[in-house]
Amino acid sequence: MVMETPLSRSGSLKAAARAAAKLAALSAATAPATPVIAPSQVASSALETITEIPWTRIDLDLYEVARGGYIVGYVEVVGAVFVALGGPRYDRAVEVSQHLTFHAAVDVLVRRGA
Fold first, then answer.
1. Are 96 and 109 in contact (CB under 8 A)?
2. 3 lies in a domain?
3. Within 13 A of 77's CA, how many CA atoms are on the CB side?
4. Which of 17, 19, 70, 86 is the most exposed place for a label (fewest CB within 10 A)?
């Protein structure tokens, strides 16, 4: 099973701005008693969550996982299992866990790198 990676580049700023506006409108409509957050804060937090792609395909069955520009680990595809390896260097990475879905393995490494 091979997953193709999207290009490692920033997403559309217009799409991020639309998402931030929707998020601001939704939070204002559901909880009017909450304090108002500046749109620039909402836009910057939405940009961080929308534009970052935490993984890059580096081989047929190997993916590199990064957080904040730093490599936190690798996901290796072994049959139907995705093995999460923690560490900045592949040759010294340690197995963290095994998962049945790719995104669960990536999530473990991203959370571990926090």
1. yes
2. no
3. 17
4. 70
Tokens for 57, please give them: 């395909």
Same domain, 63 and 47: no
Residues 6+ apart with CB under 8 A from 89: none
Please list the pLDDT of the chain residue by residue as tens digits (114 residues). Answer: 455 444 444 444 555 566 666 666 666 665 555 555 555 555 555 445 545 778 999 999 999 999 988 999 999 999 999 999 999 999 999 999 999 999 999 999 999 866
Q: Please count the structural domains in the chain.
A: 2
Whether residues 59 and 99 fall in one domain: yes
Domain for residue 84, yes or no?
Answer: yes
Q: What's the rounded Cα separation, in Å, for the pair 98 and 93?
A: 14
